[in-house]
Amino acid sequence: MPEYKNNEANEPISEYGQPLTFEKVWKMFKEAEKLFEKTDQKIDRLAKMYGGASENSREMAEEFFKRGLEARDSIFGIQYEQVDRLERKRKSLQGEYDIVLHNGEHAIVIEVKFKLHPDDVDDFIERKLPKFKPLFKEYAHKKVIGAVAALTIPKESYEKAKKYGLLVLSQAGENITVMNPKDFEWKEF
Questions:
Q1: CATH code for the domain of 129
Q2: Which of 5, 31, 150, 185 is 20 to 30 A distant from 171 in Cα terms?
Q3: What is the pLDDT of residues 15-59, one digit of tens each?
Q4: Which of 23, 25, 24, 19 is nearest to 4 (CA)?
């Protein structure tokens, strides 16, 4: 580390032998500010790129499950007539439901992810699913069954979903598979 000496005016002298003036210090701050701005811009671009990739992955998973479920007429022994994506805002409530399968008696509400994390399961159970009937009064008389679907499902996520009574859908090659055992008892919400 260089030694700094004081000049006659008792000002610190830089390692180059020149006293630091207000103008020099101000110039250094401005140069540092420009560097931070460039770094911020790079971080913003990376965030947009990552966000775009994440959004594309989610949309790809939703499309896979939507098309696969449209090609069927039942899941886990429950017949359905329609496959919808529902979104609604009502006063202070709002909700978005990736896939809803329904018939006269049941509505299977499915949360779709590219990779299912345990926190996603908690969020679906604690925040999203309880809002479904209040938002969609036309389903108030139906038995609502919760389900999660993902292309990648870690064991911890599967176990948590099963514990909550959710159906768990995953990918098996080009098809959809229900991971729950045949004797699984789903929960009505």
A1: 3.40.1350.10
A2: 185
A3: 556 667 777 777 776 777 777 777 667 666 766 665 555 566 778
A4: 19
* Identity at 10, one-letter amino acid code: N
Answer yes or no: is pLDDT of 169 > 90: yes
Distance between CA 134 and CA 161 in Å, rounded? 23
- Which among 59, 67, 137, 62 is positioned nearest to 95, based on CA atoms? 137
Residue 29 lies in a domain: no
3-state secondary structure string, the chain? CCCCCECCCCCEECCCCCECCHHHHHHHHHHHHHHHHHHHHHHHHHHHHHHHHHHHHHHHHHHHHHHHHHCCCEECCEECCEEEEEEEEECCEEEEEEEEEECCCEEEEEEEEEECCHHHHHHHHHHHHHHHHHHCHHHCCCEEEEEEEEEECCHHHHHHHHHCCCEEEEEECCEEEECCCCCCCCCEC
Span 135-164, average pLDDT: 96
Range with lowest mean pLDDT among 18-32, 86-100, 167-181:
18-32
